[in-house]
Amino acid sequence: MEIKWIEDFIALSQYQSFSRAAEFRNVTQSGFSRRIQSLEQWVGADLIDRSSFPPTLTPAGQLFREAAVDILGKLFDTRAIIRIDQRMAGKGLQIAAGHTIALSFLPAWLKALTARFGEVRARVIPTNVHDSILMLVNGNCELMFAYHHPELPLHLDPIRYEHLTVGVDVLMPVCRPNPRGAPIFRLPGTAARPLPLITYTETSYFGRCLALLLGRVDATPALRPHYESDMAEVLKKLVLEGEGVAWLPKSSIVAELDAGELVPAGRDAWHLEVELRVYRDASNRSEFLDTLWRHLRAESQVVD
């Protein structure tokens, strides 16, 4: 049995809707339903009456909910006490960020932060978008950095989870150049010679970004899936070895573009602009976090 199953169950009892509860828990409806079923199998009884609309709790579900709320309350209270003891002393930050952001953006950002506030002890946890959101929601980080596109929003309560835009990046197609400096793979390719595509897994955020972009371009590209990974750094290495074309965030390949090791594989119409956002839980009233947030807000207004 997992704690997230209990949290799912409590959310369902509050929203009385599988779809709304799944959205609140930031999980697909099918995945949410499977977790509720797993909890019912662990308990050994039906907790949800699915014959009614909206779905209601069975007598067993009502009994379990009372115990679940009490148990979770005690667990989270105990966790809060432990975290106070374990929190980094002084000006410390626990940061969750995507791998590309952690490698390409955060080093310079943290350096600028130290120049402004003095020594700041930061612990950066590189992870995927889903796990970053869970860290923020569960209180396991003070800041979360993530990419954002208006058509691919992160499902976070905007009242509780504030955000600021701290940068803009571009997802662009690149490949190795030939001896004359031209791309060895040029979009859109042809049916006779489709381009080898080094791409992201469909469920990754960049994978969804790429699907959005390819669904909007005028000319359907001729692409042949070649390699797949959910990490941009893996794609970058394969592209540098001449294995194919990949859409990479420009921030991660500035040096390679400047050195001519990589070149654009298509015109600007094949690019997708994404925001780089930082999120915080507004209920976290850390004095240093509040000071930092005011500074970041002022900086973002200057940029705007």
UniProtKB/TrEMBL annotation:
Q: Which UniProt keywords apply?
A: DNA-binding, Transcription, Transcription regulation
| Xref: PROSITE patterns | HTH_LYSR
Q: Which residues form the HTH lysR-type domain?
A: 1-58
Repressor found in the keyword field: no
InterPro entries, sorted: LysR_HTH_N, LysR_subst-bd, WH-like_DNA-bd_sf, WH_DNA-bd_sf
SUPFAM superfamilies listed in its UniProt record? Periplasmic binding protein-like II, Winged helix' DNA-binding domain
Q: In which family does this protein belong, per the annotation?
A: Belongs to the LysR transcriptional regulatory family.
Q: What is this protein called?
A: HTH-type transcriptional regulator YjiE
Q: Which gene encodes it?
A: yjiE_1
